[in-house]
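**User:**
Everyone, produce one record:

**Assistant:**
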Amino acid sequence: MTVSTDVEMKNASSPAAEKDKEKTKVDVDAQSIQEIKDQIKQIEKAVQTKEQRFVLRVLRALPNTRRKLTVPVLKSLISDSSLNSFLEDEMETDDPSGSSQPSSKSGKVLPEVDAYIHLLVLVRLIDNKRYEDAVICSNKLMSKITSENRRTSDLIAAKCYFYHSRVHELTNNLDKVRSFLNARLRIATLRNDFEGQAVLINCLLRNYLHYNLYDQADKLVKKSAFPENASNNEWARFHFYLGRIKAVRLEYSTAHKNLVQALRKAPQTAAVGFRQTTQKLAVVVELLLGDIPDRQIFRQAVLRRALSPYFQLTQAVRMGELQKFNEVLTTYGNQFRTDYTFKLILRLRHNVIKTAIRSIGASYSRITPAKI
């Protein structure tokens, strides 16, 4: 009897619980809408005062904003009717009542604001893995960006370039945007658009390295000047790509310096994936230099699991155990290929053999003639 009563009570309270849940969702959406409207005011203020710091503040909040993007939120902000088609497919799941309608806009929307809202829609599509729609959305966004010649949109345009490149990478069509990125880099350089230059150089380097075009990547680095005024995040990416290029070209000392700089420039409390990827390459480069990485690196909480294969690799190289080295390659070969470190690790075979020979020589040197 007690069990059945509990079940009946739960069923009876279910509609009320659902109602409260729906109300909470509406409240959260309303709060998110207000936050984005405040961001739009910041962008408008930046246009009026010609102060880019207000736009920079908005873009720094993008990682937090993207978690709050729902169909009702975006529907209430969109002024470009062509963007509604990218949200229609999600209306049944995200907004069953269909009560959310685009808010009526009075007056003309600033191109910077329009581009920012368009960017939010693109980010939403990427997060929902609707990559084909994201490509179409991104191409439309690029048409808007390239048709405007406003310095106040430089920072937003730079962020749009990044996601344009990213969505083509996710659809395995990264080579198709290479000419576009090169063209925009020339324009950004002529306009002294420092953030745009930094983002576009990094996008092109990533593009070349994705297809193992290391010579072209090296030529780009030599022929272009990375802007000193670029953000720390862009500097971190640039140093990482430069480290990869130098490592492949056997310039291990320079590569290691660049990777250390990348780790210093990267956010220390965020961007865990970037730090893991950079540290993996740094470990391999340090081994190629003939040094053994500090054991404390492998003990860091955020790196311990990711660096586990590289810790075993380090042990094999340090002890000069060729059999263990081959076992590590066999076990974690796919992981090393995913990390783009496999070919570099193959070069370590000579280091392992040298260490083994040195160990054997040291053992024989301890044998005195009297013992023979």
